[in-house]
Give the backbone structure.
Amino acid sequence: MVSTARASSSVPMADGVSECRKYGLPAGEDTAAWATLMRPCVGHLQQIKPAGMMACVSRLTDKRTVTAMSIWLHCGLHYQPRPPAKPVCTPPVPGDMPPVNQPEKGCCFFPLRRDESGAACWEVRVFRASPAGELPAVAGRWVIELVHLPSRGDPLRFCAASEVDAREWHRQLRMRAAPLVLVWTRHVGVAGGSGGGGGGVSPALDGPAAARRLLVMDALTRGAGHLVATGALEGVAGVAEFVTEVTQKEASNLAAAAGPVVGVALQSVCFAARVFAAAQGVFDAAAQTSADVDDLHKVCRRLLVALKDVRDDADVGAAELLHLLSRLLADVEAAAGELHHLVRSRRQRAWLACSASCRGVDVGSDLGDRLSQSRRNASGLLDELVLALQRQTAVDTRCILAAVGPEAQLAAAARVGWQGLPELPDDNNIFNDWHDPTLPAARLYAAVMQSGATAAAVVGAHGMGGGGKTTTCLLVAHKVSLEIDGQLRFPDGVHWTQSSRHVGLGDVRAQLCHLATTLSGELVEAIDLELAIKRLRAVVKDKACLVVLDDVWHEPRAVPFVRALAHSERSSLLLSSRRVDIIHGCGRGRTVICVEVGERHGTDAESVLLTHAERGGVPARDKTVKRVRRAVELCGGLPLALAVFDSLVRGYALTSPHEGGWVAALDQVGSHQGSLLTKSSGVDLEYGCLSECLRASYTALREDDDDRPLRIRNFRALCVVRSKEQLPWPALAALWNVESRAAVAVIARDFHARSLVSLRGLGPGEALSLSLHDLVIDFLAGVFETDYMGHAACCSLLVERYCERNGIAAAGEKISLGRTRVALRPLWLIPPDGYVERALPHQLVASGAADELDLLLLDMRFIASRVELAGGHCGLYRSDCRYAVGVAVLDDVATVVEGAVVSTGRALSAQLQQAAWEVAVRFGSLLADGATEADRPALTYLCQSARAYLVSPFVELLGASRLLVPLERRVLPVSDCVQRMCAGFKESGGLFVVTANGPNAEATILNVWDEESEAGVTAMEGHVGGVGCLAVVGGGASGTPQLVISGAGCALRVWDTEYWSCVAVLEGHTKAVCCVTMVDACGSDTPARLVSGSRDGTVRVWDAEGWSAGSVAVLEGHTEEVTCLALEDNGQCGSRALVASGSKDKTLRVWDLNDGKCLAALQGHAHAVLSVVVVGGDGSGTPAHVVSGSLDGTLRVWSEAERWSCVAVLEAHTKSVDHVAVVRSGACNEPTWIVSASEAPFVKSNALRVWDIKDWSCVALLEGHTNSISCLSVVDDDVFASPRVLSGSHDKTVRVWDVAAKSCVSVLEGHVLQVRGLEVASGRSCGKPALVVSFAYTDNVRVWNLAGRSTRVASSPHAKAINSMTAMGDGGQDCAAVQLMSVSAESIVEVWDTDTWSHVAVMPWRHQVHRCIALVDRNGCGVPTHVVAPMYSRLLFLDMAGTCLAEWCGHTSIVVDVALVSGADGRAAGRLLSASPDKTIKVWDMDSGTCLDVINFPDSVKQLAVLDAGKSGSPVRFAAVVGPDFARGPHVVHVKSLGHASTRILGSARKHAFDSVAAVGGGASGCAPYLVSIFCDGTVQVWDWQHASCLRVFTEPVSWRRCASWRPRPPMGTRRPSGVLGSGGAAPVNDAAADGGSAAAFEDAAVLVDKKGACALVDCRQLTLRWLPGPPNAASVCCLPGGRLAWGLRAGGVYGGQISL
């Protein structure tokens, strides 16, 4: 029996019903079936393959194999092998495609293209194999066969489980072969051209963003007329925003409303756009493909919107349009199928394009060509659609073109950020004489109009502020755009973009894209700055345009425009800046013409003055030539001063029209001229003329009308404004004590008319704000120089009025802070308005309320508000602390809060609770340990405010458990694994840290943390690829700018540290760059050079001044990777510049960079060279020595004096020498010692070795680290009498060594993971102490101040993480204290006293424990006598002295968990359960050690939890976590009873593994009613396991690690102190009363620990989850009798506490 169906058919028209039946399509009203058809179809089949490579041989032709396959039917057929499992074959069901972040082997793809014009692309056949047929090996099985047409190549065959399953697969395949036009005819009903008025089903969504998406979805279903009416697509410009807003859920809703293929098409196009967007930055081919997909998306969106509005009476009918659109979307669907395969196939490795924007999908030319053709087809179809619509009504035409026309995209792009040419101010306000070639405007015009060889690449206008640069450039721009000569010179137009001091690199990228969009007429987008430059360069190459870049403050903001226009011979760049060096720097060797725009002189200045003075038709009767010239003289020709003087003339002329205004203005300005020489005006002497004008205008405020006192007071109140501040209207309303925006606008306009202020947002609905020119601010400062109290009163009044307007009461009773009493207002309640939140600390200090600010900075409520305002980091709070004087602990407070809030996952409110808890506990310990008297008042108030801020539940530490104030100065957040790091100080004195982050061993993200920024950590734009090296070069006394160099792949990127822009990309290496160093400049003849070493075996030298694209020299000689570089410290300019390079080819080479010659090849090492330094040769007359460390475990010394021969072999290390450093000492800072260290694991000694360079002898071993040394550095700081060496280790510490004293002076503890790298940021050039920065994989980056105030001394040697803890006893009848046994990561077993929380003993045995050990009490006295400890696949029965009494064998894999249960006779602890990944749990008799039973499970057993130990004679019941190894695949919980074969399974299979389960509750019955299970994906489930009912599911954005509970409940009898969990005065966790101090208050609770070490409390009765402030970085937790808890920390140590409510 054979059933065959071809996948194509002619398009149905008359007989549409029969055609639909042929393809098996659902009924039109069956919405659910259509939604199902949209989703992927998944299932399992067995693929039939030939038997081996030689299947073509005749004797093997009948041999076949069947392989289990997972099948996904979506945009084609995807299949891949799967492990054998039952059922082997399944029917197709709706499902999801596999995730793209887990590429797999063996992914295969069979394209299934839809019908096109009656041509069949493939066919499907279903038949039953017979013994005599083609497939005798599978005789009797039902076969599904797919073959491509017309070639009929090798068929693809699968076996199904039954005929029913095979028919269902056949039906699904046929439905997905249906032509799209048939689908629309059947379901959407567009073939007849309904006109677009049909209703639709819209998704129910919440929130503003969702409402907007609702409009888009509704418009797609109702047609273009509704779209235009609602304005749903207003501002939606391009694929990126639309892709973001069309979610998976909405696509499903769209399928139900408008047909599945609409949703499929959108989903396919969006998916393609996301994939290719990630690839745009790498390959031009992928970027072009991305543009094709982008265009496809836009066209499809417009077509789908307008499709139903096409009527059959149009010249181009709906049927033909449907054919064209069906073909277009079939192409898109086929491309989407290929993309699905690309991103999921490990072989293709294309999944990298989805996981990081720095990787590209190397699409083949075939796919790219087909997408390009699809784009052309879509454009043609759009043209046809527009023509059809134009032939309908005029109203329809206007609506459709407005909604879907291409010009709407360009207009929206322009609205995003590109500014067109601004209009000139009123002609009456501007004077210019184009016939005067000496004027700035004429000179600029002549410069930009030059062409050919004389043309300048950059034309610049420079001058001081207020000089008229912007107006002059605007004059030139308009003249070029309006006159014939300009239009001929620049036929592609004049384009204006506005820069400013605050423009960032992201803004520059957007401006470049918008300029490219304007010039090309097509939407241009780029994911980074480099790609934006490349895109604009390609667009402008053959263009002739003038680009104006106004008000450039920073050179890196203009350089991208210069680079983009560099290859356009006919285009020019005109830019304005206050600094001429910026303009010349932008030229970078090209022709630059600079024109100064500044003071006006002679008739030019007089004309400008008259133009302004007579603005608005207000003539002054007393105007004379002499008076005009006198005014120009007083104004010094400064345009801003001329404008202010003119405002005076107009003001006097309006008040006294018969007398005029010139005489009064001259008198007013002239009266202050002499005072400039005797007292400060607040303005530099260079701007003295402006000061006179401002003072006169200020004086004139007093003379106008009856409101003059108020006007003067309002202007004087503006003294609170600082440079570059924008005051919003609410701040101005508070400052001027008015109520409305309108009243603020009246006052502000008055000052604006007098040229005293600048205003923004004067239009209706705009945000009004006011700012002052820097010179006006200086003037106001001079006004208040003799009236400080007046300035303080203004600042105080501003804060008071903010309080009044927000209902904040005046300060109540004063608070004691040492010897002073301070009135504190709750200023944290002031709502932010964009100004007050930043200005408040300054205003308090300026108003004389510095004591109140000090108290605020110690109040946890204010601290929390600042962290919330900053978005979850401490940048704003640290900025506030700079205003405090005399409060020494604030830096430490900021560090503690920083460390608590940098972790991700918890809500910010929970992080702030943790911060308050740590502040109270850590500084409370400091108080108890004896803080200085000066600090005690501040610390006392700080701790009180932190405790008052806490909300229960939280932890009270017990006994000796104490958290100390951290040693580190800063804690920087880490979003991923840090692989590389560098640090330094900026010229301004601010610290910066740059990290390269990435998963596994490949860094992909470059982050920069800048101390001077309040924005926290931000990504550095433009970086692409994995980072192989990262270094800070230049700066200080080197004579070169400070730069950060990052080696990414084969290229080096050079970053400016002031503005974090990429200033150069150095390409030339053919393999990854491994190391870099900088050679400083030597006079004007020898420029600075950058030297880089690579895996390609070459050393390249780069020009560090011009940053030319190619390297200056290529030093070749090494045959393998260059691993290290070292420079000769020349000290002063010399005739040579030596560089030593080490390589994996076992050699070193010494190079002279001045001539590029290799001076020597040093051979002798037996293995790769890993480290190298150069000693001597610094101009002092001593010969140079090269010291190298190698994998062979030796250091070799090579002497220049001995013709670079090896003069010493230093053999002390037993393994590789990974780190070598030079230590200098003495008055001359001469090299004295060499320090070496090894990173190799498992060495006998982890000591640093110190070598004396005089005789190369080992003079000291610096011992202290307990694990291998990962990094080494030298601190060069004058604050230390003797040199310091720092070493970071895998023991999680950084140690500071005094090499002269040969001792460790400090241990820097705080990291919870292995220290992987450290950097020393030298602050010598900016007068700052050196800082040490260290990183440890995913742990936070920490900054240490070696010379700063330390709150504690170095502690004892570091301990490893505590992996598990077990209570020793159950507390007895009176809940007496028990002891605790802990096991660390290094298998050390320790005992702790939980009464005093002190360390008791270290057990004399070590065993690897996975989750817990079993403690046995053979004497019945509550004290353990024996231990059962898992040891790999065995169980060891030990006494407390560590003697092994017995070994229980039987498991074939490691034992992961053990638990004691009652014996068969009811005797407590009579049996032991052991769980293992060998898929069994074994039951052991505790007396004899025999295995009583083996319980088998279908997969590995990961953990067990005893639900009922059988103490009351009830059956023993337990839960087991069962799933595949390595936490891959689904895990489930099995509940079983000993002696019963039945199993109860809780929950369905999940993709994330269980990390832990815990039995909760039970009380006196001993049977726990609840089971809590936690997942790695952040899910928490609470089960009533007896009824197999899931009571509650919690989801948190964390990864859970551990779970523990208080079970069984301890006996009652002893009261606990009030106020803690389990006491008589505490609120219970659940409904049960804590009667008489009963422990029932917490018996139904469980404690969870996430991967970051944070804790949460789950109440199984109340079904609540609350985060629990407590000890940070917990690795394990144990619940103890009496409601107490024990935490084992990741950094080592055990803490005890009790939950407080």
